[in-house]
Amino acid sequence: MLTELVGLVDKITPVRESFNDMAKKNLYEQRLNSEKVYEGRLLHVHRDEVRLPDGNTSVREYIRHPGAVVVLPLTQAGELILERQHRYPLGRDFIELPAGKIDPGEETRACARRELLEETGYVAKEWQYVTTVYPCIGYADERLVYYLAKGLAFEGHKRDEDEFLEIFNVPFDEAMIQRGEICEVKTVIGLFWLEKLLRGEWSGQVEPKS
Fold first, then answer.
1. CA 85, 208, 145 angle in degrees (round to 5)?
2. Is 115 a catalytic residue?
3. C-beta atoms surrounding 74 within 10 Å
4. How many CB atoms lie within 10 A of CB 103?
5. pTM of the model
6. What is the DSSP track for 130-142?
7. What is the mean pLDDT of residues 57-64?
8. What are the pLDDT digits (tens) for 149-176?
9. Which helix (H) or strand (E) holds 177?
10. What pairing do the DSSP bridges indicate for beta strands 166-171 and 79-87?
11. Exactly one of 161, 174, 181, 184 is catalytic; which is it?
12. Is the domain covering 68-199 a CATH 3.30.420.10 domain?
């Protein structure tokens, strides 16, 4: 009976294209013209007219972002260094991993070192590139570059005058349990990647050139 059911499912299940076959399709959108509609201290908003793969045209509105690094600071005792920070757009505090935007011409690893020291006051002897993710591809070109930082030593923070943070340590297992409280996307992503690293399920990727 089970064999007959499996055979029936095979007959009625539509055949899906493989990823390789899908990737061969021309999905490219050609920029025809571009207009910068807003330029801020951090974000630049553009409106472009594009030609679609079928020859029609459309409009794409998107944000240019300098990119950012995210640091996974892990102490010898297996604790994560996290920070609590108020985020004005949502009017509430969030628990986050240390992170910060990449300055023009700055290498990502140098940015990670700088941000860890500035925000938390720690320096790290060991740095490992983990991965790069693109959190909002529908409307921005932002990238998040993740690094694992170990061999930590405290030297004292060097925060900006308008930067107000609370820094604290938490056991990694506890941080994972409290995912309901940690709901900020870069931090949730970082916790999942760190879990894979600590379990030996992920060794990291080759670090691309900045």
1. 10
2. no
3. 21
4. 11
5. 0.84
6. EEEE-TTTTTB--
7. 96
8. 999 999 877 777 777 889 999 998 888 7
9. helix 172-177
10. antiparallel
11. 161
12. no
d(CA 187, CA 70): 8
CA 7 to chain centre: 43
- Cα separation, 68 vs 119, in Å, equals 14
What phi and psi values does residue 78 have, to the nearest 5 degrees? 80, 25
Q: Which residue type occupies 67?
A: G
Residues 46, 59: Cα–Cα separation, whole Å? 10
Name the amino acid, one letter, at 39.
Answer: E
Q: Residue 41, SS3? A: coil
Please spell the DSSP secondary structure of 76-113, one letter per residue. Answer: TTSEEEEEEEEEGGGTEEEEE--EEEPPTT--HHHHHH
Burial of 170 (0-12, 13-18, 19+ CB in 10 A): middle
Q: State both tokens at 70.
A: 């995210």
What is the structure's pLDDT at 26? 87
pLDDT tier at 187, thresholds 50, 70, 90: very high
Task: Assess whether pLDDT exceeds 60 at residue 137.
Answer: yes
Sketch the domain layout of the chain as residue ranges.
2-64, 68-199
Residues 16-58: tens digit of each pLDDT: 555 666 667 889 999 999 999 999 988 999 999 999 999 999 9
